[in-house]
Each structure stands twice: as C-alpha cells, then as structure tokens.
Amino acid sequence: MKFLAQIIALAAMIQLLFAINSIPAGDRALPVRQAHKNSTGATGRTLPSMSNDDNPAMGYAEFISSGHVSAWPMRRGLWKIDEGYIRTIPYCFVDKRTYENIGDSGKSCKIRAAFNVWSGALNGRPSAASGHSLGFRVANDHFCCTSYRYGTENQPQTDSDFQCDWDHSRWPSDTLAIHWIDDVKASGSAGSSTTGYVRAADKEKPNRHWMRVASGATPDDIAHEFGHGMIHEHQRWDRDDHVEFRCDNLVGMWDKINTAHVAEKISPAQAHRALCEDLAMAHKYHAPSQDYIKGAGLNVNSQPRLDGPGGFDMDSIMLYDSYSSSEAGDQADIRTAVLVAIRRDANGQKIPGSETMIPHRTRPSAKDVQFVKDFYAWDEAKYQESQKKDPGAT
User: What is the pTM of this model?
Assistant: First the structure.
C-alpha cells in the first residue's frame, strides 16, 4: 500500500458510495476517525492472495447496527432527504487545489477510479438487478467552501488546518467534503475519513462528513476509505483467531510509549500495554496503534463495535496488509510486519510457523459487497412509489 492511513468515508454506511454507472466514464468526537496507514514503498501486490477456500468463514465489521451512526438516507436530487428510492451520497471538493490534485477533471481522476472499484464489485448502478440502492451525487465545479484555510503546506497538522466556510447555498450540510492533503500533513497516511452518516441535532452543521486524501493515495486506498461504515476488519472482536498484531513494529510507536510513560507516570511496560491494548489511551496520545486495537467491543465513546455475521474476512478491503505502518516499510517480512495472518489448532493455540504475509487488497470482498446489500438493499416498493409520483426521477 502506498502510504495508508486513518474511510469510503465515510460513508456512514459505507461511504461505500461508488461511482456507479451514473458517473461519467483513509481526533474528532463522532464519528470515530479511521485511518488507513501505509508504508511509503511497495504495496506487496505481487504476493499471492488468499482465496476464499482458505477462509471459508467470512464476515464484515460495522458500526451501523449499534445506532452509533446510520446508513446514508434516501435522497431525491441533492436537497430532498428521506425521499425517493436511492441512498445517495453527495460529495464536493473543498477548494480548487483539492479538485486539481484528486478531482475527476483535474490532474487525476482518483475519486472516480475509487468509485469504480466499488461499482465493479457491486455490479453497477442501484437497481433490482444489482440488489442495492447506493448511489452517488457527482460533484460539479462548485466547491464546498466559500473560503478555505488549509494551513502551511508541508508542515504537521494543527487545529487551525482544514477550516472551511461552508457554501450553504450550493451544498447541503451533510455533504461529504473531500480534502487534498500534502505528504507531510498526511504523515504516511494515504487517507482518512469519518465513519458512517451522522444525523446531527443541528441539521445545518456542515463538515460532519469528510475525507482527506493524500497525493500518494491510490484508487484502492481511497476505496478503502469509502468503505468506512464498516470498520477495519482487523479490529473485530475475533481478530486474534486469524491475525497477529505486532504493536512494537509500528512506525513511531516507541516514541508514543515513552511519551505516555513520562506523562502518565507509569512504567514503560504499563505504557506499552496501555497504548497497544487500550483504544482510549491510543487516541489520547495519537498512537498509530489506534487503527489496530480491537476495542473490546467499544470505541472511545463507549459505543459498540459490531462484528457482522459469518466470521473474520481475510479478503476484506478493510483489512490492512502486512506492510502498512511497519518500521521496515516495503521491506517488511514476517518478523517486521505489523499484521500477519496466522492459523490456530483445535485448542486455540497458534500453529508454529503458520504466519503468512497479508497482501494488499485492491477490491471489495464478497462480504464487503454483502454489507452494502444488507444496509443499502434495493427497495422495489419505494422505487414503484417514487415512479408513480415522478416518473423517471431518481
């Protein structure tokens, strides 16, 4: 993975949005930020992939069932929420620079390419035939913000970065705002995004759904961010039966442990355990482990993290590869990788020598697709009702 880091996406769902055929041809309060972290080198794409036969029990992990966030609502056009039959996710670029760096008509078409990753997996646009109702509102040449303060380029992120004066005349406040981020502010991250759809008490509150995309992000990195609504597969409750997390191998982890050791006045061993196992502590110190800790079913706001049916999904696009965030970068191996696949015997003991490298996933798995069809199912009755009111409308 090129650089990866803390969804789509948002997507409350799963921001899974995807640019379906309608498209011309990864510390906030809620929702929790999910980063897709990567090395700066090769992605391990040449490694053999694990087939479904090697992993017969597959499932997704998601937030929506808990009520922590919701699926994106049905929408007619851009402004009419809770109407129509398609669950449309509108998006916009925050400013011209973002549009030129990652927009659909700028220097690259990364966003559209990421949508196409999902579109192919979902068998096209929302319909009875494809079995889903997830749509996407293509951005136009108007930006989210009437003015936008990015902060100093090539400097670490600060609280004053990403300040947007929302253009309420052109964009509903729940629109997904897409930001470009330079490599220094990205800190080795390919992208980050909010998770799920948030129905704010103040319906006019903007910026509650956002995605930040780094220059080095690939379309499949961004597709991962659009998958948020699901959480990271390696943060499931049952992950230890299938993968092994080596916290010590994370880039910069020991600096965070030493900081916590001094600040909390605890032993290095206690600081290590806290930052590698306690999600709240990892968030507090911005430790890279926060994107790996399984959370014991809770996030920092004591909201359930729910494992979807069917067990762990080794093929999920939401599973980090073995190269992500490793101190060894693209040279990571079984010894230096952060996350590796393992097998256990009938007694639950790890089988010696069973560790294997996890390759970079470039497309949604069967269970990732099932997530969309579970939470964004096609509703024929809604479709027929909508067509009677306004034939041909979407």
Answer: 0.74
Burial 292-304 (b: 16+ CB within 10 A, else e): bbbbeeebbeebe
Cβ burial, residue 183 (10 Å; 0-12/13-18/19+): middle
DSSP state of 350: B
- Give the chain's mean pLDDT: 76
Q: Give the Å distances, CA to CA, from 384 to 13, 27, 82.
A: 24, 43, 16
The residues, ordered by sequence, that sit 6+ positions from 161 with a Cβ below 8 Å of its Cβ are 149, 150, 151, 185
- What tens digit of pLDDT does each residue of 42-99 get? 222 222 222 222 322 335 555 565 556 678 888 888 888 888 888 888 889 998 888 8
Instruction: Parse the chain into domains and list their residue ranges.
Output: 34-389
In CATH, which of 2.40.340.10, 3.40.225.10, 3.40.390.10, 3.30.70.100 is domain 34-389? 3.40.390.10
* Residue 227 and residue 364 in contact, taking contact as beta carbons nearer than 8 Å: yes
Q: Is the peptide bond before 31 cis (omega within 30 degrees of 0)?
A: yes
Return the residue matching tokens 């073995």.
322
The answer to whether 42 and 216 are in contact (CB under 8 A) is no
